Fold:
Amino acid sequence: MNTPEPPSGEPPRRTILLLALAAFAGSLNIRISDPLLAQVAAGFSTTVGTAAIIVTAFTVGYGLFQLAFGPVGDRFGKYRVAGILSLAAGLATTSAAIATTLGDLTLARFAAGAMSSAVIPLAFAWIGDAIPFERRQAVLARFLTAQFTGIVLSQAAGGYIGAEFGWRTVFVVVGAVHLLAGIAMLAELRLNPGAQPMGAPGANSFSAMLEGSRKILARPFVRVMLVAVFLEAFAMYGAFAYVGADLVHRLGASFAVSGLVLAVFGAGALSYSFSARWLLSRLGERGLVLLGGAVIAAGFILLAIAPAIGFALPAMVLLGLGFYMFHNTLQTNATQMAPEARGLAVSVFAFFLFIGQSIGVALAAPFVDHFGAPPVYLAAAVLLPLSALWFRRRLAMREPF
Structure:
C-alpha cells in the first residue's frame, strides 16, 4: 500500500492536549444519557425502553453525519473542523436542557450527535497524519486517556448531578465543556498554524473525495474493519446502554450509586491505557483482540448473574479493560485504512460504529422492557468473543502497512 509518510517530529504537546480536551468533551456527550434513562423515563412518565430513544437518536445523528464531516475535515483541516464542531455540539447539547417533551429531547440529542459526530474521529485522523504507524497505537492509547476520563465522569457525574440537580443540569454542564474545548482549539490554530498538518492532494476536491470513498470501500480489509466495528458496537453498546437502569431497577441502586458504578468502566479502560504498550509487546494485535473478547464476555456474564450491587464493580472493570483491548486495535487499524483520505476513512469507520450501536440499543429495548437486561448481557457475552475471534483471523490476512 502506498502510504504518505507522516511528519517525523512529534506534534507540540499543547496542541495534542487541546485536541484531547475536545475528545474528552465528545466522550462526555456520547455516554451521558445512559445514567439518565431512568430519570428521563420518570420525568416523561414512560418506560426505560421508550426513553432509550434519546440514546438511539444521538448515535444515529453521530453516525450519519460522519460521512459529511470526515471529507470536510480532509479538505479544510481536521483540527479546525473539529474545533468548530465542538462549539456547535455545545450549543446543541445545552438546548436539551429546555426540552418540554420526550420528542423535543430526542431532537436535541440527535442534533448534539450530529454536531459532535466528527470531533473524535477527526482527532484520530489528525494523529494518523502526525504520528508514524509504528508509534501510533501507543500514542492513541495515551490519547484515549482523555476519552476514558470523559467516560468515567459522564457515568459518575451524570448519575450524581442528575440525582442532585436534575437531568437538565447535566446537559448544561456537558454543553459548557464542549464550548470551552472548541474555543481553545480555534485559539490554538491562530497561535500555532502548524497545528494543522497538510492534507493529501486527493483531499482538495469533493469529486476526488467521492472517488476516494468508492476506492476505500473496494478494499477487502476495509470491509473487514467495517463489519468488525459494526458487530462490536451492536453487541457491546446494545447491552451496555441499559446497565445504569438495570442497576437501579434490579439491584436497587440509587441514581447516584448507579452512576458511580458505571464510572468503574472507565477505570478498567484506564488500566488498559497504562498497560497498552506492555500488552501489545507480549500479545501482539491478534492476541490483544482475542483476550479482549474473552474479558468482555466474563464481564457481561458476571453482570447478568450479579445478586447484589457489589458484584457489578468487578464486572465493570472487566468490561472497560476488555472493550478497549479490542476497540483500540480496531481504531489503530482504522487510521491506516486509507492514508490518502484519512478523515474520510476514519469517519466511515465511526459511521459503522455508531450505526451498529444504534441498532443494538433499539433492538434490545423490547427485550429489556419485557425480560430485563440479563438476557441481553448474555447475548453480548456470546456475540463479542465470536466477533473478536473472526477479526483475529482476518488480521492475519491483512497486508502490511
In short: The domain at 13-395 is CATH 1.20.1250.20 (Growth Hormone; Chain: A;). Residues 1-8, 200-204 have pLDDT under 50 and may be disordered. The longest helix spans residues 255-305. Residues 78 and 154 are 25 Å apart (CA to CA).
